[in-house]
Design goal:
This protein is 83% helix and 0% strand.
């Protein structure tokens, strides 16, 4: 019963966090204000706390071993990843509030990186839902592309090219996308751990 409750909490977090990131990216793309992202980020914080408390309770009360213990440990890590998705979506919206409408900026790099990041989020959720180890193992391999987009943007900024307002806002958002992609990769590693017992990389 407790493990099912953990699973349900994580699936709820997965849905909210995916919506939060998509809404933040849409706000960047369209210039329209997004008011729900902050609310979703707060919900994710609360749900992460529930996962943490339930995990501790299950370990203390039932002293699980083997696959059940691995599942509980991994659920805490996965929950943290979903919580961070929401937090970074909140940060992206905050950038938009600070910099204002960015519709005159070249958004190509950010939008392309966002698509890749959203793909990684979707894969991490699918892999968790179906306990698909093969799919989970693909997620970390996609992280390099997002990392390179961020590094390329840094080089552009340091080179002093383009409009400063556009460059700075893109750099910040790419940084948040890079962190989201990292957490998607961590979730993939946690799913592999649940199913195989192989510890995630430190």
């Amino acid at each position: 019963m407790g493990l099912q409750k953990l699973n349900s909490l994580l699936l709820e977090m997965a849905s909210i966090s995916e919506n939060a990131v998509s809404a933040a990216i849409e706000a960047y793309r369209t210039g329209q204000k997004q008011t729900l992202v902050n609310e979703w980020a707060a919900q994710l914080r609360s749900l992460h706390r529930q996962v943490s408390e339930l995990s501790m309770e299950l370990i203390a009360r039932y002293q699980p071993v083997a696959s059940d213990l691995r599942f509980i440990k991994a659920c805490f890590e996965i929950s943290y990843g979903f919580f961070r998705f929401g937090r970074y979506a909140h940060d992206i919206v905050e950038v938009l509030e600070i910099f204002g409408n960015l519709k005159d900026c070249d958004t190509t790099s950010v939008i392309e990186t966002a698509r890749r990041t959203e793909e990684m989020i979707g894969m991490s959720i699918d892999a968790f839902t179906r306990r698909d180890v093969d799919l989970a193992r693909k997620i970390p391999t996609m992280d390099d592309e997002v990392d390179e987009s961020y590094r390329h943007q840094l080089r552009e900024v340091m080179g002093g090219k383009g409009d400063l307002r556009c460059s700075l806002s893109a750099t910040l958002i790419l940084r948040y996308l890079e962190r989201i992609a990292d957490h998607a990769a961590y979730i993939g590693e946690s799913i592999v751990y649940i199913e195989t017992g192989v510890e995630p990389k430190s």
